[in-house]
Amino acid sequence: MKLLITLFAVFVCAVKIQAQETIKYGKIDAADFDVTSSMISSDVNAIVLADIGSSEFEGNNKGWFTLVFKRIRRVKILNLNGADAANFKIRLYTDNGYYEDRKSKEELVNLKATTYNLENGSIIKTELDSKTVFEDRLSRNWVEKKFTMPAVKAGSIIEFSYTINSDYIFNLQPWYFQGKYPCLWSEYTVKIPDCFSYVTLSTGYNPYTIKTAKLGAQVYRIEDIPWKKGEIGSNTPDVFMINANVGINRWAIKNVPAVKEEDMVSATNNYISKIEFQLSKTHFTTPPEDKMHNWLTVSKEFMLHQDFGFQIDNATWLKPEVDKLVNDQMTDDEKARTIYAFVRDNFTCTGNGGIFLTPDTYLRTIYKQRKGTVSDINLMLTSMIKQAGIRTDPVILSTRNHGFVHPVYPILDKYNYVITRVKTNDHTYLLDASNRFLGFNRLSKDCYNGLARVISIDTATLKLYADSLKETSYQSLFVINNESKNGYSGTFSTTYTYDESVNLRSTLSSQQIGDYIKNFALRFPQEIRLSDVAFDSLHAYDVPLNMHYNFAIDFNNAERLYINPLFGNALKENPFKGDSRRMFPIEMPYCTDDVFTVNMEVPQGYKTEELPKSARINLPDNAGFFEYIIQQSGERIQLKSRIKIDKTVYGAEDYEMLKDFYSNILKKQSEQIVFYKNTQ
Fold this sequence. Notes:
Pfam families: DUF3857 (PF12969)
Strand order of the largest sheet: 5-4-8-2-1-10-13-12
Largest sheet: 8 strands, mixed
CATH class of the largest domain: Mainly Beta
Shape: globular
Domain DUF3857: 73-223
Number of helices: 10
CATH architecture of the largest domain: Sandwich
Strand content: 35-45%
InterPro entries: DUF3857 (IPR024618)
Protein name: DUF3857 domain-containing protein
Radius of gyration: 32 Å
Number of strands: 35
């Protein structure tokens, strides 16, 4: 009997797993509402029971192939905090109506969506009303269908299924195994005839439960109706039968953890479990036709593109405008600086619109309106400097929050930002005029995300790694006994990192300096009084910003004084707040070198009772250090505190080491000097 019970338990377990793999739309019973899984914890608000997709090719009646993508997804809402799991978006590619003889976008068909609620043992079904499905245009080539499931409450099960028919064989649908909520079963099957070759790009830390590849065969019927090509005569279609070997790939992952946002990760999309595809070749000719091309070919196409290089190279109308800004007595470096400052200071950035000019917009319009997206402004900058006779090329890259680009393949969807490269006889500059607070040859830290690509006749790769961005800050404090001999007077000066300078200049541009100073003073203990707060180089965007102020503090004739020698300027919190890092690497935005020096007098009438000890903490592999050097000579105390980080990327296993490193800094910088009153 015991053996029978064990076998029955195994059978039930197998049935549950199999059900995850083979769910059918609408097949829900009361037992499905009882979801038990180790993936469910107190912070999990919804769980994906199954997410299953497939892509395959079909012959169509337009002389080509159609990609057919099918998906079914089932989710359990555990509590109302998981209600946003009932919001769905489906992206569809569109050619913007350029081709009159075919659909202008991918077609969403057979959309079904149902919410199930268990009430008194009965399942209540609420169907999605098709009138509540809305469409938004995201860009020239993408639209988005979105809908919210009805009647959702804690305990609901929601599911939907749909099909996307696509004539764009380059848009083989990717698959994301991992998302905001844990998933019990995620599976994707792709069938590709040997007429086409795709590069498969796979990322993620979760091992595949199933990963199989096998070969099949299929006959594709393709019809081509002559009148659709403008021919006169019979409407009888030409019929082609293509026999092809078919590669059948199946990937599945069981119990996929949710993606949790972590501090110091450039983009979680770099590391989640997913599969993406890029069309590389078609095999209807000998030799096969290369569809991915190489960067040299792509660059040439970019240079001729109506929304990219064509307008840059044909904006001769800009020459008189440029001549108003520069003259022949200027060097090329001076001309580039002048034109850059003009564009930066006179054009308003309306946001990041990708790597092309805004659809249906021309450089002449952008120049007239004095506004545009990042690409609009920097392509304008490129054209203007080129009209000054200086070698200038646009550069495309991916910002940190957008994700990494592929190191080899020219996959353009991976790029989302445009800057400008200028080459004079003596220098090479990288410029971004879309941020009004950036100086000449300065880029935002968000641009330092790996490889960038110069779009030119001799295209080149630029390496913009975070390790190459060095940010330094200097803080100095000079403290003396005040005239009353019963307190301190001091002067403080700080030179911010360049990144901090950009952010602070932006803040001060929209806030009265007096209001900022009031808020700034709140960071100090009440007994410290600030005065003469001022900023240097506020509008000199090429250099870091400097702030300085005077301060005073009274001792009130205390028997003992406890003074932190950093006077409110110590590290405030540990940037590593979690207990550990499960998978994702740690990615700091840049290397840092923060130096703080103090030169102070022993308070008049006091003696030093306790002085913190000097210390040094090294990171492994010469990745950085913290040093705290303090000494007293006569009536003077000197301190140098320095945090230097020379490496920006660490493995997840280094998280606790880095957390301890900063914990020790916090502890050391919080130590106080103790003075006692000298009664002799």
